Amino acid sequence: MQVLPDRFLQDLHTLRSFGASGVGKGVVRPAFSEPDVAARTWLIKQLEAAGLASHIDPAGNVFGLTDGPSILLGSHSDTQPEGGWLDGALGVIAALEVARAAKEAGGPPVSVVNFQDEEGRFGALTGSSIYSGKTALAEADTFIDVNGVSFRNARSLMADLEDGFVSHTRFSGFIELHIEQGSTLDEAGEAIGVVTDIVGSRQLQVTLIGQQNHAGTTLMHQRKDAFQALSEFNVALNDRLRNIVTPRTVWTIGRINLRPNAPSIVPGEVVFDVQWRDVDEDRLARMETLIRDLVAEIAVGHGMTAEIVPIKALLPVPMDATLRAALCAGAETLAPGKWREMPSGALHDASNMARLMPSAMLFVPSINGISHDFAEDTNEADLIMGLRVLADAVSRLD
Predict the structure, then answer these.
(1) What's this model's pTM, rounded to 2 decimal places?
(2) Above 90 in pLDDT, residue 163?
(3) Does residue 395 surpass a pLDDT of 90?
(4) What pLDDT shows up at residue 24?
(5) What pLDDT, on a 0 to 100 scale, did the predictor assign at position 161?
(6) Three-state secondary structure along the chain?
């Protein structure tokens, strides 16, 4: 099986042209947008030209199917509202090239998938979540985007309600090639990361309720200032987690709604989300206990009330040992001394696919660790290395 790097890169750049932002290599291709539908239509033609049978399922996931049982490769091609050209797209085009090369060589059998709405216009990993059975299609149909469009209406643009879903029993496993979206490989000068686990994550929505009041007449010792309480919580959280976390544990306060959010009013209420991620479920639970206790402590100290609502709790997902071993063997053969095993700090479609079948992931470096941004990029040599290691692993599995 001989992959052709030039063909692979040409296809990758062609896919970038659908929704190209005009800023560097940036792409604007949200799920079910006009550029997204055009890109998937183009991909279907490439899959069919490669001798694969195309299939669009009711969720809008695009498959290229070979005859009989096969390994499934792929990722997603939708982007963030202001996204990079490789996030997801790399895995889709690499899958196409490996499947094409396998067809040309007479085997091994390889199928391709391009999942829909991984980036969360309507949720999180929507297409693979529906395909894996984690989310019912009827439930997903009720999801609404920021503009009030439902998933049901959006998928009517590109979904096949007649043919239904492809049976997962025809696939022996799933492998997803992806950019790292972090700086570990780039800083180490390494070419390949073989993923050990996809981190679990938890998220709480916290509301602290104090007293809204006049900013000029309310003395500092009289205030029940919601923002001051949030500020104290943030500083204390960073300090108290120190004895629980590892260097790869992360936590974020990324969404804040301050009420009434006016310069001359002491804010009486703040609603914020706390999210944290780690590969160890016990550590995630210990962090939640600490966070809940700290919220209660801060509320009492400021004479406020607190409400906590769980938003999500996702378990860590270990990658399949057999598939990992094949990827490690390929990495050692093609990039000796320039690869490592590592966890994924981001969620990916592979975490859902692991519910159905053996699944694994392969990373290539992200320059300066940048992703979800127009500046996202990877050196061509690293893109090609990722393609070759993927193809090598597939050959070993066959």
Answers:
(1) 0.91
(2) no
(3) yes
(4) 86
(5) 62
(6) CCCCHHHHHHHHHHHHHCCECCCCCCECCCCCCHHHHHHHHHHHHHHHHCCCEEEECCCCCEEEECCCCEEEEEEECCCCCCECCCCCHHHHHHHHHHHHHHHHHCCCCEEEEEECCCCCCCCCCHHHHHHCCCCCHHHHCCCECCCCCEHHHHHCCCCCCCCCCCCHHHEEEEEEEEECCCCHHHHHCCCEEEEEEECEEEEEEEEEECECEECCCCCHHHCECHHHHHHHHHHHHHHHHHHCCCCCCEEEEEEEEEECCCCCEECCEEEEEEEEEECCHHHHHHHHHHHHHHHHHHHHHCCCEEEEEEEEEECCEECCHHHHHHHHHHHHHHCCCCEEEEEECCCCHHHHHCCCCCEEEEEECCHHHCCCCCCCCCCHHHHHHHHHHHHHHHHHHC
Q: Tens digit of pLDDT for each residue in 299-329? A: 999 999 999 999 989 999 999 999 999 999 9
